[in-house]
Amino acid sequence: MNPSLPDIAFFHELANAAAKETLPRFRSAEDLAVSTKPKEGFRFDPVTEADRSAERVMRELIGRRYPAHSIMGEEYGTSGEGPYQWVLDPVDGTRPFLCGLPVWGTLIGLQYEGRAVMGMMSQPHTGERFWSDGTRAWASGPHAVAPLVTRKNIALDQAVLHTTSPEPIARHPAICFAALTEKTLMTRYGGECYAMAMLAAGRIDICVEFALQPYDIVALIPVIEQAGGVVTTLEGGRAEQGGAVVATGCPQLHQQVLAVLNGR
């Protein structure tokens, strides 16, 4: 059964509402009420009032427009049930948010029967958005709207590799990340969700993340897939539940990357 999907205009409405909460707090002198929450492998996993308030306003809008839909959010958990589920990360990249670096974003995803079908990453400071409408992927900025297309037919030794932080590498020795760095052109760190958007835009070829939650990846899966890329778990399965996740620009490169990471 093909789902009846919302209009992408509602995703922009959600992103606009979230931006009214996050942007005034970014690089501001306001007390962000920073606290930390438990996260395996990290002694500091920040959450701020920007995270909490942005999720609240998005939940309110979804509840009014789609009261029968379920919502999963990083800050307030899961509510409701049914085949449609919104998956929200109000500030993906709270660490760079606190550091004043504009590589954080608001992630808005929609699943139907457990499969990610639409998504958006909004970066209000740069005025950019990256989204999938259920068929194609798009990017908008201050000057234009254009389709997103991943880079194809790139040799592994010419590929650009990204992971958000080097910290998890030592905690996951079974994932042969060092071997992958030796086989690729260069490795960069610190891009958070913005790096996934740049993969969809054909600027990065491989993104590897070691321990994602569903709200970290659901919104980005359809953006990458509908731009021509591939997103799976390390084992090659669907990535909606998170865990160790690999994204690449094309199927051929993806199989090579999985083989290296799995030590084959």
UniProtKB/TrEMBL annotation:
GO MF term (any one): metal ion binding
Tagged with keyword Metal-binding: yes
Keyword DNA-binding: no
Biological process (GO), any one: L-histidine biosynthetic process
Known cofactor(s): Mg(2+)
Residues that hold Mg(2+) according to the record: E74, D89, D92, D216
Keyword vocabulary terms for this entry: Hydrolase, Magnesium, Metal-binding
NCBIfam families: his_9_HisN
Family affiliation: Belongs to the inositol monophosphatase superfamily.
Protein known as: Histidinol-phosphatase
UniProt organism field: Chimaeribacter coloradensis
